[in-house]
Amino acid sequence: MEAPSIDTVYQAISALYDNPNVNEKEKASIWLGDVQKSIHSWKVADELLHQKKNFQACYFAAQTMRSKVQHNLSELPDDAVISLRDSLILHLESVSPDVNSAILTQLSLALADLALQMPTWQNCVSDLIKIFSNKNNFALLEILTVLPQEIDSSSLKLGDNRREQIKLDLRGNSPIVVIFLKDCINSSQTSNIALKIIRCMTSWTQVKAINLQELAQNPVVGLCVQVLRDYNTHNSLHEAATDCMCAILDCLEQNNNGDEVERMLFDSLSALEESYHLAVAHEEEEKAANLARLFTELGETFLERIIISTANGQGHFAMRSLELALVCVGHHDYEIAEITFNLWYRLSEEVYQRDYQQLTDAFKPHIERLIEALARHCQCEPDDQSLPEEGDEFYDFRVKVYELIKDVVFIVGSSSVFRKMFSVLQANLPWEQTEAALFIMQAVAKNILPEEYDFVPKVIEAILSMPEDSHLAVMNTCIQLLGELCDWIEKHPQCLEPCLRFLVRSLVQPKLANAAAVALQNICKACRSEASCHAALVVEAARAADQLALPIHTASTLMRALAAAISRLPHDQLCSAMRESVGVQLAGLSALLESNTELRKGSPTDPVLWLDRVAALFRDVDVAPPSDPSKGHPCMPAFKDAWPVLHRTMQKYVREGRVMERVCRCVRFCVRGTGRDAAELLPALATSLPPLYAIYQHSCLLYLTGVLADALGGPLSAPPLAHLLHALLPPALELLGKPDGLKDNPDTVDDLYRLCVRYLQRIPLQFVESGCCTAVVSCGVKAARLDHRDASCSLMSFLYDLLRLAHESDPATPLGSQINAIVSDYGEALTYALLEASALYLHAYMLSEVGKVLLELVDWQRRHGVDWVAAALPRLPRGRAHATEQQCWQFHQYAVKAVKCKEATRLLRDFARLYR
């Protein structure tokens, strides 16, 4: 691109913001994007900033400058970088407080990013304070705020060496920054400046640059507490003060501090309870939420010390933080109560891990009050006639309450909670209170002991005798509670039939149908043997699924209930029941295949409707071992009935990814459900899948092949499985070998290597001898850098299993000889690929899998007298962020001696930070 004229740039900016023609706007946007990418954009942006013609041009220039500094600084020679720094300082010096904050922020980010990437600019903080103080404190506050925030920017890739150097510099300069902030507090009383002061303090605190021992003398701490005391403070200032104090508390939690500092801070913050009550009284919900967040952070900061003191039979001053959190849980708005949830999760985890009754008893009162308050928050609106809908905020909140209660209930005991909620049911209260009590009972029902006979029978009796005009939400929660009591019902089979009849009747009500189907599934699954005596009830319900027009997921759940109910029938009866149940679905699917109706998702013309039902039947059938193994699996006839129809479905919908995934899923459950007997259909499956994959490379076909290998792999099934792999592998590798093929097809990578793991586990010799293994390993070396969690996990699982097999196999055997030859051929390239991927491409959470592979690879090298790690390290890129020679040497020393996966993972993570 040639250098554009400034006038042309102005015209394009005007077109982007002011031209009503959408096409012209798009053209301008594309052209300006090209300008930003070009080398000329440095000069263009600088010129626009000097001219200050209008806001749009200045913002475009500031944004361009920030983007170029962040991503393209290497375009400039060293002397130009110094000129750029001076120019940015000049622009920022001239920025006045009335300039749009977006422009100031972008320019400040540009200067901060530049400073972070200029190791030669030493003591940049003190230089900036000298340059800007007494000239433009407003701009300096913004620069000092964003500078610490950018240290961990993933876009800059500073590397740990530079980051540590910068943090050391920040810690050394923090006293003069605190003095500067104090001067700002004394010289300006505006809330806008106060906001910037507090945000600056927060940034420096978050990077651990502030000396915690001097908090008592820190003027910004005093400012924050003052702001938080005043319920008339502007909301943004109040929130900033909360963020700052939470950052300080987080630092306190991670460091050993003097009791004096901790006590001072705790007393100052706990004294804000009165401010919280004032905020509530004046309906300042945002301020109440801020203080709830602060009290929660206060509790989390001191939690470990509270636990230790309480376990030793001593009190701790911070125990009051739990009381403050409970005050917030009592707020009328459930969103404020929700802010405290993480504190209760952490408390329950600490108590559970220590398993000390005296400690558990100490926190019972807190958890009892918590659950009582949550029960109130879970009440629906009295005039609400519908059910809480999945996806709305209240529904999501109740799900979180459900999970929290399940986590903390051991502290007070499930029976105790159940008993208290049962007393609510007996009090003849409004429906919304009754429903909330039932909801809490539902959360603890799974933990009720089978011997409990005081309350559960009465609860079940009350549910079964509910009048038909009961509120819909009460009915729905009663049904869900019944499903959660499935383990109790299993021990009291006399309850089973009336419960099943009640749930089957509930299926006819559309809004209760899903809850009833789930409850049926839970009960039938828990009571398989007893449910078989009442299988006819569930069979009749399943037959009515189409008349009831049940949604896909509800009908599938009902089929799972049916499969569980018929599982323990005598094998001849089970065989008939299964063929009949599957046959009904196949008839619907066959009719659809023969028609030319258009596929409409979720309607009767959607094959998924029938496929999911067949899958559900095979998924939950769980047949008891036959007394006579020669008779075969009782569900195999149903699978043989299903396969031709499923194959036709694949052929018709071969280009529909969603349908193909569901067919493969269906076949998977058929194979899993019938076990080794499914080998009878393996030849048919092995010849049917390759033509489909040749038409369209759906990765689900690879996944299904992996299932076949896992379920049926063995000496007898090796030939058709090997034939299947030979047919599928070339087009799969061809797809991945295209430009960006790995990046564009992570699902194929995932399913291909998952398949190869199964082949390696079940028929390793045939897999290695076929030549497929070599091609897959070669592809794996290239795929190592793919930053897709599932794909990387499957690839690393394959490589790990391959190396383990090389370790465990006798080199004198054909398998051991060939597999060791493959490792010998590709080991060096693989070692470099793993180190490169770890350092430059993969997310930190993915490195544990790489660590396992590297550990095995190093072990192989050690046994064979080679050192590929030493050869790989010097080849890694030496850009702005990289490991020093000393760090590479140290990594090598630790890597070749590592024996545990955690060691290797930690090594890789620490090493990777040097490049990021």
UniProtKB/TrEMBL annotation:
Q: GO:BP terms for this protein?
A: protein import into nucleus
Against Pfam families, the record matches this protein to: TPR_TNPO3_IPO13_2nd, TPR_TNPO3_IPO13_3rd, TPR_TNPO3_IPO13_4th, Xpo1
**Superkingdom, natural source:** Eukaryota
Can you say what this protein is called? Exportin-1/Importin-beta-like domain-containing protein
- PANTHER family in the record: TRANSPORTIN 3 AND IMPORTIN 13, TRANSPORTIN-3
- Cellular component annotations (GO), alphabetically ordered: cytoplasm
The record, for InterPro entries, names: ARM-like (IPR011989), ARM-type_fold (IPR016024), Exportin-1/Importin-b-like (IPR013598), Importin_beta-like_NTR (IPR051345), TPR_TNPO3_IPO13_2nd (IPR057941), TPR_TNPO3_IPO13_3rd (IPR057942), TPR_TNPO3_IPO13_4th (IPR058537)
> Which residues belong to any copy of the Exportin-1/Importin-beta-like domain?
101-245
